[in-house]
Amino acid sequence: MEHYYRELVGFLSARLGSRQAAEDVAHDAYLRVLERTDAERIEHPRAFLYRTALNLVVDRHRRYQVRQAEPLEVLDSDERWHTAAPAHDLQLDQRLALMQRALDELSKVCRDCFLLRKLDGLSHPQIAEHLGISRSMVEKHIVNAMKHCRLRMREWES
User: Fold this and answer.
1) pTM, entire model
2) How many helices (H) and strands (E) does the chain have?
3) Backbone dihedral angles phi then psi of residue 121, each to the nearest 5 degrees
């Protein structure tokens, strides 16, 4: 199924108008497909992957619409925006520590690909050039890192 990646990114880029957004949706789509819990075999993997990606695009669009519709006065009057909830901060710190622990389990190149993409916002070609590896290896490392971190976070939080 990995050989559909570039094709999917091209397809999504045309719809989203941004290669970076397309790569993010493609990563999420791959993760959703890889993390399926039912053992049922996918009859048409390409179609399933595309449908998953399009569903994610629709979800992304809906979230954007909701954010745009939120009146600014709500933010001013909402107490959550003015005071930090200590329990929430603690939970966030714990989750960040677990995420760091999961990232530490990855190989250096896998971790670097993930961090350059997610923290520095570099594109796949930029990461490939920076690390001296192929774009397809960058794509595989990022998908593997995301999958590993999600699995470990679920495991540790349950």
Assistant:
1) 0.53
2) 8, 0
3) 70, 20
